[in-house]
Amino acid sequence: MNYFTKKLFIPSASAAMIVLSGCSSTAVNNELVSSAEQHFNQTAGPNSVREYAPLKYEQAKESLQKLKSAAESDADESRLEHLAYMSRKHSEIALQQAKLKKAEKSIQQAEVNRKDLLLALKSEDLEQTKQRADQLASEKQQAQSQLEQMKAKNNQMAQLLNELKAKETERGLVLTLDSILFELNKATLKSGSERSVDKLAEFLKSYPDRNLLVEGFTDSTGEESYNQQLSRDRAEAIQSELIAKGVSPERIEIKGYGEQFPVATNETRAGRQMNRRVEVIVANKGDDLIERRR
């Protein structure tokens, strides 16, 4: 290749790399927008959400539009992931608000029906009408109980997610189990980890229609091949604990990454201990599990 040919080839190669990079970024942006829009349609999209929670519906719609606008203006990936997370949350909040308002309306209607029947006591059979009124009162009590249970479950799940340090990502809900740490060169759980496993199992049993991926990690001590196997053994340790606590084995996949993806420096003892960890990814409802990007 002569000098003139080299001068032409080098800029062309650079331009090709830029085009490929832009295509990759565009594909990721489109995937984030598509996933968020699908989630919006499934949660905030139904007519009942617009009827019972119009304000929350508009907020969810506005949040999705912000994501679309940012994607069209080629915002960076971290900004888009944050906007996608906020879009999902606004959609879920709109759905929950609609459910609560609908339940409250059912309670109000039950009370209206009960009072109407009481007014009809003079013109209908007294005993039959009283039985119907009692039945409506019972239905009102059941609706009130269901509403309270719904609120309690929402509060309980919010508390569990906070304790498990959950983070919404494009892969699903990522739970980093900081308190489930391992001793050097071992796949057995350290003392005191049981409570964290119990919390995780409790959360997973509340969402039986979602699959999960358990990822194991090590520090950089030792051979790479040894660490790869050790990280898988650690993921299997968590898998076994969850199965023992009632989580279906068909829902659980495991993956060992060895010393890849550290969360702290491997130059200190404390950093290496943090890198000996397990992370659990809970897929969004109806979605497939997505392995970690290298």
From TrEMBL:
Signal peptide segment: 1-26
Localization in the cell: Cell outer membrane
Keyword terms, alphabetized: Cell outer membrane, Coiled coil, Membrane, Signal
Domain OmpA-like as annotated: residue spans: 169-286
Gene Ontology CC: cell outer membrane
Coiled coil (residue ranges): 57-170
Gene3D superfamilies assigned: OmpA-like domain
PROSITE patterns reported for this sequence: OMPA_2, PROKAR_LIPOPROTEIN
Name this polypeptide is given: Outer membrane protein OmpA-like peptidoglycan-associated protein
